[in-house]
Amino acid sequence: MNTQRARSALGRYGESLAARRLTEAGMTVLARNWRGGRTGEIDIVARDGDVLVVCEVKTRRAAAFQHPMAAVTHGKAQRLRGLAERWAQTHGGAPPGGIRIDLVGVQLPRRGAPVVEHVRGVA
After folding, report:
1. What range defines the domain where residue 44 resides?
2. For residues 106, 108, 109 and 112, what is the CA-based torsion angle, rounded to 10 degrees?
3. Domain tally, the chain
4. Among 30, 37, 53, 108, which one is least packed by beta carbons within 10 Å?
């Protein structure tokens, strides 16, 4: 398996774990891998009560150099905000509770269960 395909499979697995975590937390997943034109994609779009949640998912193997939570830079946060606004525009406007950007970090150890961390309002 080539590296790109392996990374893609790893990402999809992490997104599935993240979607399950959000659902268990009482959120409703509205979309996965929503493309907002050439500016990129939103990994998961969800609703948390009357709040629209744009969720970035970062999946890393436990031996990876960088913790998944360190992956959202200022530039990435700005891009996610723009994508969130585009989603709202194409789906009837922002909800009464506004828009929140969350991050779900998934770490996959060599042995044992994945570690899934959900941080609300990262940007």
Report:
1. 3-119
2. 100
3. 1
4. 37
CATH code of 63's domain = 3.40.1350.10
Distance (Å, rounded) from C-alpha 6 to C-alpha 115? 19
- Tell the burial category of 18 from Cβ atoms under 10 Å away from its Cβ (0-12, 13-18, 19+): buried
CA angle 100, 104, 105 (to 5 degrees): 150
Structure-block tokens of residue 21: 């975590």
Query: In this predicted model, what pLDDT tens digit does every residue of 30-68 receive, in sequence order?
Result: 999 999 878 789 999 999 999 999 999 999 887 666 666
pLDDT digits (tens, 9 = 90+) for 17-33: 999 999 999 999 999 99
The span from the CA of 66 to the CA of 51, in Å, is 30
